[in-house]
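Summary: Need help interpreting a holo structure output

Steps to reproduce:
1. Submit the protein chain below together with the SMILES for zinc ion.
2. Request a joint structure prediction with the ligand placed.
3. Inspect the structure token block that comes back.

Expected: a single structure record containing both the chain and the bound molecule.
Actual: see attached output.

Input attached:
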Amino acid sequence: MTESETIKVGVRIPGETAEYQILCGSGLLENTGEVVRAALGGDVRRVAVVSNRKVFGLYGEQVERSLKRGGISAESFLIGDGERFKTLRTAEKILGFLNTAGIKRGDAVITLGGGVVGDAAGFAASLHLRGVRLVQIPTTLLAMIDSSVGGKTGVNSSFGKNLIGTFHQPAAVIADVSVLATLDPREMSAGLFEAVKHGAISGEKLLRTTEKMIVARNRDPRLNGAETQAVFAKGIAEHVRFKASIVKGDAREAVTATGNRSRKILNFGHTLAHALELATGYRYLKHGEAVGHGVQFAAELSKRLELLPANSIKSLNDVVHRVGNLPPVDKIGFEAVFSALSNDKKSHGGSIDWVLLEGIGRPVIVSESTFPRGTVLKQLKAFLSPTQR
Ligand SMILES: NC(=O)c1ccc[n+]([C@@H]2O[C@H](COP(=O)([O-])OP(=O)(O)OC[C@H]3O[C@@H](n4cnc5c(N)ncnc54)[C@H](O)[C@@H]3O)[C@@H](O)[C@H]2O)c1
Ligand SMILES: [Zn+2]
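--- attached output ---
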């Protein structure tokens, strides 16, 4: 792939009228206007761009200029930066803006930012006039490979994270790897840990692709080189294809689906990750870092249950370690994590369904009620102890 080549991944969700394109490449923001016009049809005139101050300060002007060149007028609205702004209150403010700006059914919302902007603005887009079209411009690696694909939107509340939301598929996604140059290194690693999670459940091919992305980032941390950008564009496209393939088969995460292609397998590593995040008040770890720990925990649990051979664990842990150091968890305290896990248990009707591995690319969903007594407890004690890891 040359620097200017763009990879297009077409996604068709059963039940939705049209296929949409996910574009992966570098320098794509320059062509936002063209892409939006192609995705929304020639008669689109107005869009609302939702972003935050940091990302809009970096890329807003470029996006607005390109839209203008494409004959599309844009009004922008900035939300607060950070997970604590992914709230109903923010969604309400966005809805107020869409209303005041006079965004009509034929117009669209464009999100420019990470998963927080994408989730909150996507949620508002699904509610405004019972749903207006949405173009996602994810600007973090996590948002490119994960949150912008699959149609889940939502906000956090006092009831919990992401419990209020909708399914609202985008009309297009523009993943421009050039914007990753300004991403905080910790955010980049957080995205790479999520990428390793995808690799673990998808198979050796995606795991190796992820490893190539990690090696390229380690060599060129700001992704300045054309070669690094090409590795990322290709890698992101492969991740997106994988996530889309799972979403296609189970677009609305059917409650009864438990097969190894159900959307639930995407939660690999997330049971412990959510407990670690809850136990530390969502402040100590980035979500992706919690997933990095969660992937290792779920792999070790799989080994303890004699599902996963030791050599597969080693190959997976090696990739996790190449991403970088994870903030240590030995000071978090067993009680806090165990009680956070128990909380999860209550909200899942008494027993947690763990996503485990029988091999790389062979996820299985296993109810904790089938584990020998004390399995998770023992595993957690070992995991949180500084001497064992
Ligand atoms: N909808 C889904 O299916 C789905 C899936 C996974 C995660 N999520 C959600 O995604 C959110 C996390 O997303 P995230 O990791 O992108 O976090 P984020 O949106 O908070 O972005 C991380 C930080 O990077 C900054 N930033 C973004 N792009 C930048 C750029 N190009 N240059 C410099 N700084 C930049 C942001 O302003 C922010 O400070 C969570 O709320 C999570 O629940 C949703
Ligand atoms: Zn995640």
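--- end attachment ---

Reviewer comment: The chain has a mean pLDDT of 93. The two ends are 40 Å apart (CA to CA).
Status: needs-info
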